[in-house]
Design a protein that fits this description.
The structure holds 2 protein chains of 2 kinds. By secondary structure, chain A is mainly β. Chain A has no helices and 10 strands. In chain A, strands 2, 4, 5, 8, 9 and 10 form a 6-stranded mixed β-sheet that branches. Chain A starts with a strand and ends with a strand. Chain B is an all-beta fold. Helices cover about 0% and strands about 60% of the residues of chain B. In chain B, the strands form 2 sheets. In chain B, strands 2, 4, 5, 9, 10 and 11 form a 6-stranded mixed β-sheet that branches. In chain B, strands 1-3-8-7-6 form a 5-stranded antiparallel β-sheet, with no helix packed on it. In chain B, strand 9 and strand 10 form a beta hairpin. Chains A and B meet through strand 9 of A and strand 4, strand 5, strand 9 and strand 10 of B.
Chain lengths: ~110, ~110
């Protein structure tokens, strides 16, 4: 079956512009996660969605970051007024349910802010 | 707060030279420990899940083991295609994932 997909694979933007990153989880997976990975660093948790529950936004670094998940499936991560320090790879993962289930990752979106 | 520490940060091996990676953790109520492999420019690829101390899992040249404080990923007779960054993650009783910084493995012919 299809895995987690993300688009675009690469995004180059100018400082101050808004960007939207998209994630299509594995069909049937109720939990969806966003992570950020800076060069040579580990994964930094950003936000997670579980079914129809309110998302856990505890990892979002600032109010410029937001995310939504429509219809319990596709998710969009939006970064407003991008800064150079936002440059990183943004990874999406999904799991069958939250908690102890294995997370399966997409290929990531590499964001470069000039 | 949950903590995951991986060592070494980097490991360079000759083809066929077996070695082990370490993942030590501090977590409130471990519910699962996960190993992933990440190739440059790609997302992490799932390898193993371990749930309780004493558990072991194997896949080709890789074997993962778990104790109450740490996990080891043993690479037996590695090949160049085993070169990657190996990530460890734990999830606690609240279901929150915490990833380590990873071990970068390079296997030379």
């Amino acid at each position: 079956g299809a895995g987690v997909s993300q688009s675009p694979s690469n995004k180059v933007t100018e400082k101050g512009k808004d960007v939207e990153l998209r994630c299509d989880p594995i069909s049937g997976h109720t939990a969806l996660y966003w992570y950020r990975q800076s060069l040579g660093q580990g994964l930094e948790f950003l936000i997670y969605f579980q079914g129809n529950s309110a998302p856990d936004k505890s990892g979002l670094p600032s109010d410029r970051f937001s995310a939504e998940r429509t219809g319990g499936s596709v998710s969009t991560l939006t970064i407003q007024r991008t800064q150079q320090e936002d440059s990183a790879v943004y990874l999406c993962a999904s799991s069958l349910n939250r908690g102890w289930d294995t997370q399966y990752f997409g290929p990531g979106t590499r964001l470069t802010v000039l | 707060e949950d903590q995951v520490t991986q060592s070494p940060e980097a490991l360079r091996l000759q083809e066929g030279e077996s070695s082990s990676l370490n993942c030590s953790y501090t977590v409130s109520g471990l519910r699962g420990l996960f190993w992933y492999r990440q190739d440059p420019g790609k997302g992490p690829e799932f390898l193993f899940t371990l749930y309780s101390a004493g558990e072991e899992k194997e896949k080709e040249r890789l074997k993962a083991t778990l104790t109450k404080k740490e996990s080891f990923l043993h690479i037996t007779a590695p090949k160049p295609e085993d070169s990657a960054t190996y990530l460890c993650a734990v999830t606690d009783s609240w279901g929150k994932f915490q990833f380590g910084a990873g071990t970068q493995v390079v296997v030379t012919p």
